[in-house]
């Protein structure tokens, strides 16, 4: 059985350090040199989200989606400390967390205010990226920077559906569609628009809670975009 640690054991561990949350949005590829320079200069604690390992080695690697872990788990670096949802089946944890993991106990429900109590995170998050902002805060971050949190609809429907632009670092074009299911472009795009609305709401909730963060690559979430960092 993989060694399991509690998130409470990591609270304040990186007090005063800069954090960089790396999502899997295609913008990180477009800004690779600038991000590489940022990492070399600032030496931040890096939290990776889902399948971003083609870009850099994360200090911590957060997974909350069973399907994504099943599909991309083989890309995990053994040097990274995994942070895995408590809800994952034990079989899945055992398969990918050979070197142990930090258990992520959280409530992610509409209308639940952001909070942390007795080792459990509460709030409305929708994505592992939003949840990782809270994690960085709990770990003691001084500054929280985010790359690759593009939003599903940043590049526009025509560009994504044609393959001119991609939603993620991996794949081409519309990469958010469910694997093995019939793809309805119009319906899928509407779902992505709805997802972006929910994520924006989650980001605002984190901000109201008192967490300051900046998305430093192009993003759908303009309120939190800081184009001056890179």
Topology (SSEs and partners):
Elements: E1 4-6, E2 18-22, H1 27-30, H2 32-42, E3 45-49, E4 60-63, H3 66-72, E5 81-85, H4 90-96, E6 101-104, E7 106-108, E8 115-117, E9 120-123, H5 128-139, E10 143-147, H6 157-162, H7 185-209, E11 214-215
Can you walk through the features of this model?
With 230 residues, the protein is α/β, with parallel strands linked by helices. The chain has one domain (4-224). The protein is built from 7 helices and 11 strands. The strands form 2 sheets. An 8-stranded parallel sheet has the order 1-6-5-4-3-2-10-11, with helices on both faces. It has a 3-stranded mixed sheet with strand order 7-9-8. Helix 3 links the parallel strand 4 (60-63) and strand 5. The longest helix has 25 residues, at 185-209. It is globular and about 45 Å long. The N and C termini lie far apart (42 Å).
């Amino acid at each position: 059985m993989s060694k399991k640690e509690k998130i409470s054991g990591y609270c304040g561990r990186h007090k005063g350090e800069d954090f960089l949350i790396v999502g899997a949005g295609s913008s990180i590829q477009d800004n690779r040199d600038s991000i590489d320079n940022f990492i070399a200069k600032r030496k931040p604690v890096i939290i990776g989200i889902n399948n971003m390992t083609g870009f850099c080695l994360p200090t911590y690697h957060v997974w909350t989606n069973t399907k994504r872990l099943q599909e991309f788990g083989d890309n995990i670096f053994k040097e990274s400390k995994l942070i895995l949802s408590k809800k994952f089946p034990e079989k899945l944890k055992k398969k990918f967390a050979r070197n142990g993991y930090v258990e992520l106990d959280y409530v992610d429900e509409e209308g639940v205010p952001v909070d942390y109590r007795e080792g459990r995170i509460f709030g409305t998050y929708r994505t592992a990226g939003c949840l990782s902002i809270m994690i960085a805060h709990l770990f003691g971050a001084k500054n929280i920077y985010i790359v690759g949190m593009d939003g599903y609809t940043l590049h526009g429907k025509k560009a994504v559906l044609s393959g001119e632009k991609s939603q993620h670092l991996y794949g081409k074009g519309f990469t958010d569609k469910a694997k093995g299911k019939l793809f309805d472009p119009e319906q899928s795009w509407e779902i992505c628009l709805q997802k972006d609305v929910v994520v924006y709401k989650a980001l605002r909730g984190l901000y109201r809670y008192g967490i300051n963060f900046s998305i430093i690559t192009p993003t759908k979430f303009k309120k939190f975009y800081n184009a001056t960092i890179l």
